[in-house]
Write a structure and sequence with these properties.
Distance between the termini: 24 Å
Largest sheet: 10 strands, mixed
Bound molecules: iron/sulfur cluster
Radius of gyration: 21 Å
Order of helices and strands: EHHHEEEEEEHEHEHEHEHHHEHEHE
Oligomer: single chain
Number of strands: 14
């Protein structure tokens, strides 16, 4: 990589158009470039055969196409694959592929570390290091797409492509909103990576003012990590609650601008003796009433360095039952990849310290 040159994967289509115009090229060249940059196997401008040779030379002098080196990989016994991508400044970020028979969900990172300090999350213990650029976000997807294309078909559990994306890896995506929006634009542009907004989910711990900006500027799904339904408990689990308390967060969910018939995904991780009582389930049912939502319940994954315990299976089912009787769609999300520390809340790279 040459730092005096521009990484074209940091631009969405509009950004590419503006970039080529600065090089005194017509705007349609930006669209042509977009169509090339995200084709598998394209790593230099000389492969872009329908671009004029002179233009390719101009590009070569001023820009480059970033990609990650071969990632570190760990495979879970349940089929999940954790990828470790080394960034140009040496930091390591992680993404997790979660294959099912009909889909491949990729959990991507948006930051190195995280500033939000949720007390049940290993990433939070790293602190915040830096935001990922748009190219560092989309290159996680490109790299796993290429991995799937190279894998022998018979060894795959799911399809040969990444079908769904969740921003639930390292970092709070809304704390990196501008780069997040640019990456979503690249991911959803037809000439880019061509995902529909419906297949992308952004998860937030509740950065209230930025939720609306995300909703007004994209058609992705929103997941909100709630994890407690009273301010005292949530203040302990998620310090962001002191800044944006539950009442404000729930109001932001109620008024969140989203496409018709969509619902917000409420994420609720049960921690034994902390937030898993019947009373908490009834209160959750009561306070979510005005919000079009579905609920994902997750049993906490115990790990070294985090003081909480998993709830019993009976407790999890009883909690679900109360919510179901209150007419919510409630799913118990099975945690995948825990044997390789790739499950929810377990992403924290030891190699960044
Ligand atoms: S749960 Fe999410 S927002 Fe909270 S510390 Fe972990 S990565 Fe950050």
């Amino acid at each position: 990589m040459n730092s005096s040159k521009t990484d074209l994967k940091n631009f969405d289509q509009q950004g590419l158009i503006e970039f080529v115009e600065q090089l005194n090229q017509p705007s349609f060249r930006g669209k042509q470039l977009m169509a090339w940059l995200y084709k598998p196997g394209i790593s230099d401008f000389w492969q872009m055969t329908d671009l004029a040779k002179k233009f390719r030379q101009v590009l070569n002098d001023n820009a480059y196409i970033s990609s990650f080196d071969k990632p570190l990989m760990e495979r879970s016994s349940d089929g999940c694959v954790k990828f470790g991508f080394r960034l140009s400044d040496g930091y390591l970020i992680e993404a997790v592929l979660i294959p099912e028979t009909d889909r491949n969900t990729l959990c991507v990172s948006s930051q190195v570390g995280c500033a939000m300090d949720c007390s049940f999350c290993l990433t939070g213990t790293m602190g915040f290091i830096r935001n990922l650029s748009p190219s560092e976000i989309v290159n996680q997807v490109c790299s796993v797409r290429d991995f799937l294309l190279d894998e022998p078909r018979e060894s795959l559990i799911g399809p040969t492509e990444v079908t769904n994306l969740v921003f639930m890896g390292m970092g709070e995506p809304l704390n990196n909103l501008s780069n997040l929006l640019t990456s979503i634009s690249i991911l959803t542009e037809q000439k880019g990576l061509d995902f529909t907004g419906r297949r992308i989910t952004v998860s937030t711990c509740g950065i209230v003012p930025k939720m609306r900006i995300l909703g007004e500027n994209s058609t992705v799904n929103l997941a909100v990590s709630l994890h407690a339904i009273d301010d005292d408990t949530r203040n302990i689990l998620m310090p962001v609650n002191k800044r944006y308390p539950l009442a404000e967060l729930l109001e932001a969910c109620r008024t969140y601008p989203m496409p018709k018939r969509r619902r917000i995904m409420i994420e609720y991780t049960l921690l034994q003796g902390i937030n898993d009582s019947d009373a908490a389930a009834y209160e959750l049912a009561r306070r979510l009433k005005p919000i079009p939502c579905k609920i994902n319940l997750l049993a906490f994954n115990e790990c070294d360095g985090i003081p909480y315990k998993s709830p019993t299976r009976e407790r999890l089912l009883a909690f679900q039952d109360i919510l179901r009787k209150n007419h919510y769609s409630v799913f118990i999300r099975t945690s995948r990849g825990s044997d390789i520390s790739a499950a929810c809340g377990q992403l924290a790279s030891e190699n960044n310290s």
